[in-house]
Prior knowledge:
single chain; 151 residues; alpha+beta; nine-stranded mixed sheet; 4 helices; 37% strand
Amino acid sequence: MSHNLQITVKIVTDEKGRQDAYAVRQKVFVEEQGVPLILELDEYDQDAIHFVAYDEADQPIGAGRMRGLVNAHAKAERICILPEHRGKHLGNLIMNALEEHARNKSMKKLLLNAQSYAVPFYEKLGYVVTSPEFMDADIPHRAMEKDLRTT
């Protein structure tokens, strides 16, 4: 669990928690960025580990998911914060929660595909770019990874 003021990042395992994660993702990726819903909610959601940031009123304001957990690598995906809550380091809280969970599962690396504009955010957290730019849902991305054993 990560705390910031009254913000709590939780691993959600019930249907309500997953719906909270989907609601944040829909606002950010579908409504704000124009990603088709069919691409945003995918076949991996059922088995992924979902993380949701809740405010002091227990409203979902950020989300992310982790999947993979194979070959000592996990993948962070769908990291997002509602627009009105950006700039408060909530992305750091969510990433810290994902990294802590991955370490607890003995993962050596955490991989992600960052939207290109977000690369500096992830670099500050210790991630390094591992690919040329590529398009996903018509948005430029770069693959990144972080060695969890050295941090």
